[in-house]
């Protein structure tokens, strides 16, 4: 038996030719990932034919809304080797994000004067955190094998849920998010495309059963059927991806959600098993777990940039931030504080902001 070294790639002899022991390498990759703070690491092949068919139908149905980049990339999203030539395997990772000391989400949603921010955006921008960790993992792999690899964190046309499911990190829930029996859904996903023929996992079985809680709870009924999401109605899309005017008929349904929506995750039974994150970068910043709509609406543009630099929220920009809060203020009780806040922006230079402020004021005048 050969004596393995720790400084070079593990090898064995087969017909007199040195070969990589990919099983041992895969085990080491998972150990490295765990040491870097990923709760799970898995490996999949790149065959996404079924997912590609679903993607093309989703696009044909127009369910991507104004996300033109989804259609622009087309089938490339389902073909990793076209995105990164030479890709043979995808290493998928999970990292928990639910902050430990965040105010109870149900309390925030029940208080119309409070601002609800999706739990994933309360701390530092996850793109930066995950990319940094993934790059460290990728560099370990490069140093060990001399391979070619590239990391992704929701930053390119990648079907990350499908790949994570194939890598046995969980299964696609009826709300279209990835679910894990051990961790629910409060986690981020990331990928490394690599040109090594690593062993792949057996795909995770689905454990949603007959449950329809996520479909029933969706405020805008954006989950039109199990595993089918019409992004045009999704509050996360409306408050983050949509750059223009929010459809009038959907505004009352948004409630006090000013950035994203977690309702389908909050009601999911599997999230009873979710573990809160210990990552300092995902800790609550700027009191965003317990802020009022009026105080956030009062931020001027320099304050917005100063407070939210390094946050995922910063990417939507100040104008969209005010648009979202104006809608939430229109859904709040017409207290003196709420009405005064709206009046301060009634002559705002942005026509987009003025439109939504005017809607909010008219809503209160009719109530």
For the termini, the CA-CA separation is 81 Å
Oligomer: single chain
General shape: elongated
What percentage of the residues does DSSP assign to strands (E)? 5-15%
What is the strand tally? 12
Mean pLDDT: 94
Taken in chain order, the helices and strands follow as EEHEHHHEHEHEHEEEHEEHHEHHHHHH
Assign a percent range to the helix content. 25-40%
Largest sheet: 4 strands, antiparallel
Q: How does the helix and strand content classify structurally? A: alpha+beta
Instruction: Determine the number of helices (DSSP H or I, runs of at least 4 residues).
Output: 16
* Weakly predicted, low-confidence segments: 1-18
Rg over alpha carbons: 23 Å
Strand line-up of the largest beta sheet: 3-4-9-6
Structure characterization notes:
This protein is an alpha+beta fold and 367 residues long. The protein folds into two domains: 21-291, no CATH class; 292-367, no CATH class. Helices cover 39% and strands 13% of the residues. It contains 16 helices and twelve strands. Strands 3-4-9-6 form a four-stranded antiparallel beta sheet, sandwiched between helices. α14 runs parallel beside α16. The longest helix is centred in the middle third of the chain and has 20 residues, at 126-145. The chain is elongated, with a radius of gyration of 23 Å. Residues 1-18 have low confidence and may be disordered.
